[in-house]
Design goal:
Layout lengths: L4 H9 L13 H16 L44 E5 L5 H13 L3 E4 L1 H7 L8 E4 H4 L16 E3 H9 L2 E6 L1 H4 L2 H11 L4 E5 L7 H7 L5 E2 L5 H13 L7 H22 L7 E6 L6 H17 L3 E4 L5 H15 L6 E5 L26 E4 L4 H11 L2 E5 L6 H5 L1
Parallel strand pairs: 1-2, 1-5, 5-6, 6-7, 8-9, 8-12, 9-10, 10-11
Antiparallel strand pairs: 3-4
Helix pairs in contact: 8-9, 11-14, 12-13
Length: about 400
């Protein structure tokens, strides 16, 4: 209908005879309908979809049926399977378009629906990744913005279309290449999917993986596109991931249960004495590189003490975090209040950390001489994974490479 009820009513009141004659088209209605038809043609016969406010839509998994233990207490939410064919999202750089097309054709022949991230680029006809972004990962990682983060600028955003497709996908495949590694958009896509989706990396070419890629994908097994039989391996892994009867190995399931238990224990332990929502976890380099860094660490400790009602947590290592914690403790004492400090330390680690932490000769760790010490995890790596699930706010001071595992988590 090209006339609204109000327009018909107004025409009647004016005494226009053609007010209800739908065979009579006024010029303005002809123009309006022509524009709408043109829009439908440009959008392949579909009406333009109304723009959604991404801040009002939570992230969810819809078709990844992998087993998750009851005790798992993380950001992942497994929903009912997606209606229709399972969706596979392939994240890649436009330079690997031909490879992506061949991979899409392969997976479609296996009965999957496949969406390439470059389809979003082509739709915008910009030749590069789109600049329109949805909300940041940090904003919805736990379903809501942390009260102390509401003035923190977003560090990682993802295109809205990619976020929507990734939320529906059962598996996300990333095609790793040098161009992909140098793309901020690709980096955002990987960050978004890392803790949400079942990710299968494919290495397209030989290149030096940057730090962020090693941190996010380094522990995952990737398939090499230059190896014979890689296609069969990719298909096999996708089938296993999407098979509702398949379960992860006993070792992986037990590790997840253990991590979930350790996470819950640490939360309950700290929450029994402190407010976990007001806890700031500080980590960084194990050696102070300059006087300027030392001054910053001391100032940060004093400023956190000035805020009041703040709990400070560290990993029990020497260096930046230790200086901040000691400064925080001294500032609280000068204000005649108790410093609420926690040190989360692993039980042991097979590596020699005697130059980085208070470690015994048998590789077990000591109690930190100030604040409260809680032992969590059987290694530094386990400890960092647990810490990442517990603390909402973390401050990194220098030492990106030495603190790589902490930063990754």
């Amino acid at each position: 209908m090209w006339k609204t009820e109000n327009e018909i009513k107004e025409a009647k009141e004016k005494g226009e005879r053609s007010s209800e004659d739908f065979r009579h088209w006024d010029k303005k209605y002809v123009i309006a309908v022509a524009r709408e038809i043109g829009e439908m043609v440009r959008n392949d016969g579909e009406k333009p979809k109304p723009k959604r406010d991404p801040s009002k839509r939570g992230s969810m998994l819809r078709s990844y049926p992998a087993f998750l233990p009851d005790m798992v207490d993380g950001p992942v939410e497994v929903m009912e399977p997606r209606v229709g064919k399972p969706l596979i999202v392939i994240g890649l750089h436009p330079e690997q378009k031909l490879f992506g097309r061949s991979l899409k054709f392969l997976l479609e022949n296996e009965g999957y629906e496949v969406w390439l991230s470059i389809e979003e680029v082509e739709a915008n006809s910009q030749g590069d990744f789109p600049m329109k972004m949805a909300r940041s990962v940090s904003a919805d990682y736990r379903g809501q913005m942390h009260p102390l983060l509401k003035f923190t600028p977003s560090c990682t955003s993802v295109p809205e279309d990619f976020q929507s497709k990734a939320d529906q996908a059962g598996v996300v495949v990333f095609v790793l290449s040098e161009a992909f590694a140098n793309s901020k958009t690709s980096k955002g896509q990987v960050f978004y999917c890392e803790h949400r989706k079942h990710v299968i990396p494919i290495k397209y070419e030989e290149f030096d993986m940057p730090g962020w890629m090693n941190m996010l994908i380094g522990r995952k097994r990737y398939e090499n596109s230059r190896t014979d039989g890689y296609k069969e391996l990719v298909i096999s892994r996708i089938r296993r991931a999407l098979d509702p009867t398949a379960r992860a190995s006993e070792h992986n399931e037990m590790n997840e249960v253990k991590m979930a238990y350790s996470t819950r224990f640490l939360k309950q332990t700290i929450d029994a004495y402190s407010d976990l929502l007001k806890c700031v976890y500080v980590f960084g380099g194990v050696s102070i590189s300059s006087k300027r860094t030392l001054d910053i660490c001391r100032s940060l400790g004093q400023m956190l003490a000035d805020v009041g009602d703040i709990t400070l947590a560290t990993g029990g290592l020497f260096g930046a975090a230790d200086v901040v914690a000691e400064s925080f403790s001294e500032a609280c004492k000068s204000r005649h209040c108790e410093a609420d400090i926690w040190h989360v330390v692993p039980e042991r680690d097979d590596q020699d950390y005697t130059r980085k932490a208070r470690q015994h000769a048998d590789r077990t760790f000591q109690v930190v001489p100030y604040g409260r010490t809680v032992f969590s995890g059987d290694s530094m790596e386990e400890r960092e994974s647990i810490v990442a699930r517990v603390f909402e706010i973390a401050v990194l001071i220098e030492g990106l490479f030495s603190a790589m595992q902490s930063y990754k988590e």
